[in-house]
Design goal:
By secondary structure, this protein is an alpha/beta fold. The protein has 15 helices and 17 strands. Strand 6, helix 1 and strand 7 form a beta-alpha-beta unit.
Length: 457
């Protein structure tokens, strides 16, 4: 007898059309995908009639502990993720000291507070980080690291480093990663040319209007694309998997069409806020983020990129922050970037992708689960529906229309940039390792059940 059977649902295996099937689960793992009516007897049964069963989403880009203490963010953030159908996340950490010293505390906090499983990315800021790279990878199973090129010129002021964060830094890090393991190591890059952004501010400062359209002009599309072009060349030349985070611009999507851009080691990510908002129709300065939300033609190009494979993943880039802290003294130039967007990957792909643009459910399952699992060394334990894989699942009602309120951000933020929006298609149940942790908008799991996921190297 199995522990759990999920019957009468339409199961969506990544890359395939939905099919009527029953799932058998035992010990937290999937033991079988059976024709309808043929699942073995189970101690508990979930009837998924009228629902689609997808692999649980993986959020590959989140910043719990960014503006607020990790202990404050982890419980609420992972709980909201679970309500949105996310069963695994990969959290970014940034610090100037040794990750060898602090990583055990990160792991301890997540395993004490998290509702769902997690892996980590570490941002590389200083020469000692590079010196310790191999040992950090070995000790903690960290195979993905980040460089934020927008730090260029501010290294000393922000994190007291004399090492420039520039393409030379990328080159050095890529070579070190290649020496460790060219097939498993991944370099995540925030692509913005800070020199172009600085020039844009000089040119525009006297024409300031306190809105998202002006904010977008301060980081023009070509400041992103210029940086992306450099990463395309380095990825091809050095041969390290390069993951381009939060891409926002049509110009970048056009660059990724270039013949010489073809490179299986070059991977693009975008985010729900770029897919669902525009600068003209967004929720004002609460939606400031870096890179900025852009225009309708940019949004359309991002959806096209998800459909044709130039973009492979969607990450929330969630960075929980309270309204007063974000807006500060009310001066436009002091508004902080970022907002809490966890839990909107699945709703955005269903509403904006499946319903509005005809993106297939099989492709959506790849984008939200299989692709991030493969890229970041979690597959096939995560990211698919197959015997032996963790029973991480999300049951969605494609016809439900859900109106978002500020309650979508719980206790570690007090506003949502999606508040007031209607999403068609919504998660109604989330399972993590065979346990129902969210159902009908309520958390049913407990904090502290999540596990840290070291990756093989």
């Amino acid at each position: 007898m199995t522990d759990l059977a999920i019957i009468n649902g339409r199961v969506v295996i990544p890359g395939e059309d939905p099919k009527l099937a029953d799932l058998a689960i035992k010990g937290g793992a999937i033991t079988g995908v059976h024709p309808r009516g043929e699942a073995p007897a189970a101690a508990e049964t979930i009837d998924a009639t009228g629902l689609h069963v997808l692999p649980g989403a993986i959020d590959p880009h989140i910043h719990l502990g960014g503006y607020q203490p990790l202990e404050v963010d982890t419980g609420p953030g992972t709980g909201l993720a679970a309500l949105g159908g996310v069963t695994t996340l990969v959290n970014y950490f940034k610090q100037t000291g040794s990750y060898l010293d602090i990583a055990p505390k990160y792991i301890e906090t997540f395993e004490a507070e998290s509702y769902i499983d997690s892996a980590f990315h570490f941002q590389l800021l200083t020469q000692p980080h590079l010196t310790e790279l191999a040992e950090t990878t070995k000790q903690f199973g960290i195979t993905s690291y980040k460089i934020n090129l927008a730090w260029k010129g501010r290294e000393k002021a922000v994190f007291d480093s004399d090492r420039p964060v520039d393409n030379g830094w990328v080159w050095s890090v890529m070579e070190a990663m290649k020496d460790i393991d060219p097939d498993r190591m991944v370099l995540n890059v925030h692509c913005e040319n800070q020199e172009l952004k600085n020039e844009a501010r000089l040119r525009l400062v006297d024409d300031m209007t306190p809105d998202l359209t002006f904010y977008e002009r301060l980081a023009p599309d070509f400041s992103e694309t210029d940086s992306v072009l450099g990463m395309m060349l380095l990825a091809k030349e050095i041969g390290v998997t390069t993951y381009l985070v939060h891409l926002s611009a049509k110009l970048t999507m056009d660059a990724l069409k270039l013949d010489w851009a073809a490179n299986e080691r070059l991977i693009g990510e975008t985010c729900p806020h770029y897919l669902m908002h525009t600068a003209e129709n967004g929720p004002g300065l609460l939606a400031t983020v870096s890179p900025p939300i852009r225009h309708q033609d940019d949004q359309d190009a991002l959806w096209e990129g998800l459909a044709d494979g130039r973009l492979e993943t969607v990450g929330s880039d969630s960075n929980p922050i309270m309204r007063d802290f974000k807006m500060g003294d009310g001066d436009f130039w002091n508004v902080k970037p970022g907002f809490d967007g966890v839990g909107f990957i699945v709703p955005s792909l269903l509403s904006g992708g499946y319903h509005r643009r005809g993106l297939s459910l099989g492709r959506i399952a790849q984008i939200m689960a299989e692709n991030p699992a493969r890229i970041f060394g979690l597959y096939p334990r995560k990211g698919t529906i197959a015997p032996g894989s963790d029973a991480d699942l999300v049951l969605v009602d494609l016809e439900t229309e859900h109106v978002v309120g500020d309650e979508a951000v719980a206790t570690h933020s007090d506003f949502s940039i999606f508040s007031g929006m209607t999403f068609k298609g919504w998660p109604v149940m989330t399972l993590s390792r065979g346990e129902v942790i969210a159902k009908d908008g309520r958390l049913t799991g407990s904090p502290g059940r999540g596990r840290y996921l070291p990756r093989e190297i």
